[in-house]
Specification:
four-stranded antiparallel beta sheet; GMP Synthetase, Chain A, domain 3; about 350 residues; rod-shaped
């Protein structure tokens, strides 16, 4: 008998020993199928949209052209009042800032002040021009809103002020731009005159007080000369000394007066000279401020003079026509898409 061969038992492969299969053929095919289906759906949808536009092309073309024609018609002067634009550019001059603001910012603040707005509104009767009833409860609010929409005042990147005026009359627009600068000069002149007048009055009062002090000192010195013969202490002292040596009786009396009142005379002369110097300095400042008070300066350097426009600035008809046509095109496509989807939805409901 042949001996039995005992084969060694092989250990069973555990789950850890088996290689992990992330993808198999089935999974890969499913993923490819999904991607292909998605791409086909997208292509189908794009194709459907193109087919839809081609199907309704004449409707879309007619609606777009009609909207463009309506835009051209309703943007004409028969329906919209054309506005003409006039612009001025100026730099500030002969002014100094009040605080941390620049000269340009100060000019911008003054031009935008209500006093200048009211001057322009009243001079050109903008109540009638803008068709606003003065008796309306909110008339001033309406006027200021309309004013700010038609008259734009801004600072340029180069620290200048740009004044842009829109009006139905090109000559009125030009005149308003000029008068804004004119009223600005007038406003700044009034502000400066008011403040300089206060300074001039202050210096004038100081001069009167200083002159009174000088006159009082001179009167005291005159009293010494009249009563005691003390006129010029330095000069008289030499003469008195010479006369006293020669034995003159008058020299003896004058010497006694000089000894008693000579120091007062010297003190008065010194004070008169000091007060006169102070008076001269005050008068110099007074005359300088008085010169500014009486001057008629302009406070703007006009770089670009406004002129009457020969072409309207609003409305821009080609923009209106283009926007009307484009809006009608997009809206018609959306409406057609809604109609077609509604038809498809109704058809699917009927099949069910």
């Amino acid at each position: 008998m042949r001996p039995l061969k005992i084969r060694p038992l092989r250990p069973k492969a555990t789950q850890k020993d088996k290689p992990a299969k992330i993808f198999n053929n089935t999974n890969i095919n499913n993923i490819i199928a999904k991607i292909t289906t998605t791409d086909m759906d997208n292509n189908f949808n794009n194709l459907s949209l193109v087919q839809l536009i081609l199907k309704w092309k004449w409707h879309i073309i007619i609606i777009t052209v009609a909207a463009a024609l309506c835009g051209a018609i309703f943007s004409s002067s028969a329906f919209i009042t054309p506005l003409y634009k006039s612009e001025a550019v100026a730099y500030p001059a002969n002014i100094s800032p009040y605080s941390d603001e620049s000269e340009t910012e100060q000019m911008l603040q003054i031009i935008n002040s209500l006093s200048i707005m009211d001057s322009i509104i009243e001079k050109y009767d903008l109540w009638t021009d803008y068709k606003i009833d003065k008796n309306d409860k909110f008339a001033r609010t309406y006027m200021l809103n309309e004013y700010r929409s038609k008259i734009k005042i801004n600072k340029t990147p180069y620290e200048a002020i740009s004044i842009s005026v829109m009006d139905k009359d090109p000559f009125v627009a030009c005149d308003i731009a000029k008068d804004i600068l004119h009223f600005y000069d007038q406003k700044v002149h009034d502000l400066h005159t008011q403040k300089v007048a206060e300074v001039v009055d202050m210096y004038a009062l100081q001069l009167r007080m200083k002159q009174h002090d000088i006159d009082s000192l001179k009167q005291a010195l005159t009293d010494l000369a009249t009563q005691y013969g003390v006129l010029n202490y330095s000069g008289q002292l030499r003469e008195v000394t010479r006369g006293f040596i020669n034995g003159s009786p008058k020299a003896k009396d004058l010497k006694q007066n000089l000894e008693l009142y000579g120091a007062d005379a010297v003190d008065l002369e010194t004070k008169i000279i000091a007060e006169a110097n102070t008076y001269s300095l005050i008068k110099k400042d007074y005359e300088q401020n008085l010169r500014f008070f009486n001057s008629h300066l302009t406070y703007s350097n006009i770089i670009t003079e406004p002129f009457p426009a020969d072409k309207k600035a609003f409305p821009v008809r080609w923009v209106v026509v283009a926007l009307s046509g484009l809006g009608a095109l997009l809206l018609s496509i959306v409406v057609i898409f809604i109609i077609e989807n509604r038809k498809r939805f109704v058809a699917e409901k009927e099949k069910e």
